[in-house]
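New to this. Please check this protein:
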Amino acid sequence: MRAARVSVLEGPAAVTVEDVEEPALEPGHVLIDVHEAGVSFPDVLQSKGLYQMKPDLPFIPGAECAGVVRRAGDDSIFQPGDRVAAFPILGAFAESVAVPEERVFPLPEAVSFAAGAALLMNYLTVHFALVRRAQIERGETVLVHGAAGGVGTAAIQLARAMDARVIAVVSSPEKRAVAERAGAHHVIDADDFLASAKELTGGRGVDIVVDPVGGDRFTDSLRSLAPEGRVLVIGFTAGSIPEVKVNRLLLSNTSVVGVAWGAMWTNEPEYLRAQWTAITPLLENGSIDPLIGSTHPLDEVAAALTEIDERRALGKVTLRVR
């Protein structure tokens, strides 16, 4: 089969597509013919050796995909021909992948393979962030940084589905259009987001900040919070990790909340299926519908990764495998 491979840790440009052996079907696994794979920022970091998970070289990257079951064990809940989304963690950028059954999920017939591949990393991370970590309540105001990216558009849609008011922060007219398509109630410019957020909330501030960006926006994110507000730390696509002067947290009883979705499901593997069960009705009624920014053939995996690395992605980036 054909698959993307990381053989040297020199970034997206060094990722190649090669012929490799097909994976064997181990007990408790499901063998999936991949139709579409999702591309995310951790894939970029892995290509540089900068992610916390450092697999031995060479490896096939790709954490999420959607496709059709080819084979499963006799006691599996899946049958050949079933449409599924899957979270292999590694190996999704290939024509076939074997995935532990607890990380394979039924894909509704009305949901495309591209949308299925765009759901797992972003939507389940944001679901965990909003529901478990922030304990979001109806009517709260959620400010979303990086609102035109995969995590950002997922946050807009899930927050809306939870009856929150959403303020999206963007840095260009093109990204504004994406945030509007995702369903944001308000879209504001990154350069003066603090003043704009305060104005939109009558000076009170926002209840939740979703921050996959980090960098020099962080202090103003804290300043944008209403009393008992919380900043959700999801990632650092800006490249720098901000520091918190904790005395700021005392001023309005605010919180900085870490969002380690991977640590959560690693310790509680059944949590993934509970999350999938929770978002499936939102998929079926159209409350969430992943925005696909660009789709690349598998042979253009380096270009797909570079698009994310250079922060040019508008919506989710996917790879079409078959």
Observations:
- The two ends are 12 Å apart (CA to CA).
